[in-house]
Design brief:
It is a single chain. This protein starts with 15 loop residues before the first strand and ends in a 13-residue tail after the last helix. By secondary structure, it is α/β, with parallel strands linked by helices. The chain has a five-stranded mixed sheet with strand order 1-3-2-4-5. The chain has four helices and five strands; from the N terminus they run βαβαβαββα.
Length: 140
């Protein structure tokens, strides 16, 4: 689930899981239900600011959406596969497919609204999208 204490400041179980290059596929891509991943970096001030809101949403939407974080500096494989160029980047996955993303200093209210809409329309979006083969490289 992640390193360190899995309890948050309130003494409750932390529902915001950490994923990495080794666990990303099992936790996100093979998941049947929706997932929200925040790609973050240690030096990102907005990442630190937004994390308490993401934890709150993980609690609020528990059982309906998996919330995860991925440290970009330690996980180059996933970062390259999904073209992450800045932090924070927020990606929504449905049935293992990336279906939506937000990049940069996004207001927490916008993220929450996107999660609510994602829950309404995410399955439809995933069913009507073409899967991308991320194992193909554009470099010769």
């Amino acid at each position: 689930m992640g390193d360190g204490d899995p309890m948050n400041a309130g003494g409750q179980k932390d529902l915001l899981v950490r994923v990495d290059d080794q666990t990303f596929s099992d936790m996100i891509e093979t998941r049947d239900g929706p997932a929200f991943v925040m790609f973050q970096s240690a030096g990102c001030p907005h990442c630190r600011t937004i994390t308490p809101y993401i934890r709150e949403y993980a609690d609020e939407f528990a059982g309906r959406v998996l919330f995860a974080t991925l440290e970009v500096g330690q996980n180059p494989r996933v970062v390259e596969r999904f073209g992450i160029r800045s932090t924070p980047t927020f990606k929504f996955f449905c049935k293992g497919k990336p279906v939506q993303e937000l990049v940069g200093a996004v207001y927490p209210a916008i993220i929450k609204r996107q999660i609510e809409e994602f829950l309404l329309y995410g399955n439809e979006c995933a069913a009507n999208s073409t899967e991308i083969d991320y194992e193909v490289s554009g470099y010769a």
